[in-house]
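Hi! If you just cloned this repository, the fastest way to understand the data is to look at a raw example. We've pasted two of them here, unedited. The first protein comes first, obviously.
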Amino acid sequence: MKKNRFLALALSALMSAFAFTACTTAADDTANAGTDAAGSDGADTAAVQTLTYDDVKIGVIHIGNPADGSGYTYAHDQGIVGMQQELGLRDDQIVRKNNVSDSDPAATETAIRECIEEGCNIIFGTSWGYMDKMESLAAEFPDVYFCHGTGYKNNGTNLNNYFGRIYQARYLSGIVAGMKTKKNYIGYVAAKGIPEVIRGINAFTLGVQSVNPDAKVEVVFTD
């Protein structure tokens, strides 16, 4: 079970560093909705038995460039750097694909396939829009682990997801809003009705109610 132990440690190190940089408490806190996509149990078992620290290679798909030094991509890459240091991986064991639009499925697929061609057996996709391509390619490559940052899809074998506990900060901001409102009517602008956004809305509302049970929260989705 070397591969499972390595993946658990890699995820732990990644999320610990990512959470510290992004000012969140990291965890593998996911809405695990089951999917029908599944790889070959036999192929995955064989990979579990043979993968070691020396031959592991990690691909990372970023929507931006960590060199910019700010924002989500930089914070996430600090998690990758922390993981590499914690596990003692060489520079040539990390492959980064930067500035890959998560709204362009073709670009996403190209970046992932390039990682696989370069020998990556664990791939991190760090943005929501990579999810569907990671799902389909996980089915095509059952001996590669696909780790999707945010999202809700997994196949129980080689596709999983992870995220930080952003809802904790949402709860605290709800407390502030509940204390500051003068009309007991608070607006919340949300993106899409996906699990991580719904968690944030619920946490914010619970924070409001904890200090001001008379206040109401109205949510508007931008989609």
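Ok, and the second one:
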Amino acid sequence: TRRLSRLVRKMLDLSRLQSAEYVTAQEQFDISEVMLRVLVSLETKVNAKHLDVDTQLPEDPVEVWGDPDAITQICYNLLDNAIKFSYEESTLGISIVTRAGKAYVSVRNQGDTIPPEELPLVFDRFHKTDHSRSEDRDGVGLGLYIVKTILNNHKENITVTSQDGVTEFTFTLT
């Protein structure tokens, strides 16, 4: 019942994100602060897996344009996935780099890598790799699709690499 309820909520969120009249509220905010707030909200999950957190954030605020609530959802989905698929007692990495008018926000974890043939599919609706089906019974396969949809609405990009036990998602913000 809980899984079905989560699925319905996510589908309603998706419907709202995809509707023609959905326009993101563009405002300036500090992406470093958003990322750290989301990390703190996930502290219990980080501690449960005994993860070290390696943050590489600029000392000064990184002001970006976008919908802070939607970007918070992106940070939450990416960090939650990174924690979920991290090996116990490994390192969770968060970094923000700025160049050429863009912020590049990265979340990386150490765990089983995503097979190369699965990488192009991870942002598809309802896509779950075989590995995640066995360990992530609570997921519905919409988290990364929502991330991609929000970034598309912001006219931004996201990439993923997964090799040698390290998976890293990097998205851009103006």
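That's it. A detail worth noticing about the second one: The helical segments are 2-18, 31-41, 43-48, 68-84, 130-135, 143-153.
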